[in-house]
Amino acid sequence: MTESEKEIDAKLIAELKSGKLEAFDKIVERYQRKIYALSFNITRNQMDAEDVAQDVLLSIFRKIDSFQGKSAFSSWVYRITLNATYMKLRSKKKDKYVSLDEEYPAFNKSGYMFEKPFDWSTSAESLLFSNETKEMIGKAVNLLPEKERVVFILRDVNGLSTEKAGEILGLSVPAVKSRLHRARLFLRKKLSHYFDEFYGRGEKK
Amino acid sequence: MICCKECLDLLYDYLDGNLDTEAAKELNEHFDDCPPCISFLNTYKSTTELCRETLGKIEIPEAVQSRLLKFLKEHTRNP
Questions:
Q1: What is the pLDDT of residues B18-52, one digit of tens each?
Q2: Is there a contact between A191 and A140 (Cβ–Cβ < 8 Å)?
Q3: Is the alpha carbon torsion for A11, A16, A21, A25 positive or negative?
Q4: Which end of chain B is more exposed for a tag (fewer CB within 10 A), N or C?
Q5: Predicted-complex ipTM score
Q6: Domains contained in chain A, CATH given
């Protein structure tokens, strides 16, 4: 987020604190998509994301006085969005961890790969960005354990820095990096299976 | 020479440009000589790109949007 974005936020927050309702409308306009998309990408559920967007925007309105400006406003919004999203996930299935061994290709005893993985990165754009591929990506992200999924969405999808993601999640930089690496490996493997199948090849487990 | 597994363990820092010169040089030398690692590296990078492209474009559906604004109006404007 650029400096002027921060300034716009600061101005709107000051106005909202002084009771100007139009400032709230502008905050809603600026943040509603971010809140909804973050929650949707984590829950993969439209109704949950809608509930979260309602709760979070209303919380911003009601709790704006408790926002001290110690961290960026966007970090504060991300944090309450994640908390509301976790509440939705809490009743759902418990998490596993991503094991590196499962996501790596097969190595021989000296640590070299047995065979060359299929390089689908050079496939036709039309296949990479087809609706079926998009649907498969949604499903693959849904399979990612929550801890890795949240880091992946903040960092790789929303493009936050490692430091900012760590600040929001209360994680150290190395912890963010390791979860992100696991998430990428997990998703890479899922995508590889999909493209392998499409081209009738098979990357060994 | 370092092996494939060691390269993959360092892949994240390699792409982030966080490896020291010596380690980065070792990885580059390995990659020059290792098509499997190049395939892995390419697909690792593409995974992020594809997911960003797909998930970064989530929009609020129109029906959700209008319910949301109605909800906020009711809860913030009425005494």
A1: 899 999 999 999 999 999 999 999 999 999 999 99
A2: yes
A3: positive
A4: C
A5: 0.90
A6: 3-90 (1.10.1740.10), 100-198 (1.10.10.10)
